[in-house]
Amino acid sequence: xxxxxxxxxxxxxxxxxxxxxxxxxxxxxxxxxxxxxxxxxxxxxxxxxxxxxxxxxxxxxxxxxxxxxxxxxxxxxxxxxxxxxxxxxxxxxxxxxxxxxxxxxxxxxxxxxxxxxxxxxxxxxxxxxxxx
Length: 132
Prior knowledge:
The protein is mostly helical.
């Protein structure tokens, strides 16, 4: 192996750094699935910082198929998209928005495996028809 071949191979340190960065970004993106975490970031005004907005734009690559396959919480990708919008970043500070997002997420998880699911209303018992 020549010196050029050795330089062409990524060093173990570089591979370890890439893996660590991948894991950190994956963990952060998945944490975005939690509406309470999003609200906490919003209430600390982190979501409004230009550096954070740029970071969200950078993280959009997680929505590509090659990276999305590592995501365990698909709502994280939806929230990653929502964070691009200033209105969402402003409104998620409110408890009502957080609770609505939390409820929609819960409803989705509760019903996603049953495509024929329709929300049920309390059943009204019918009396059998009487024939005269």
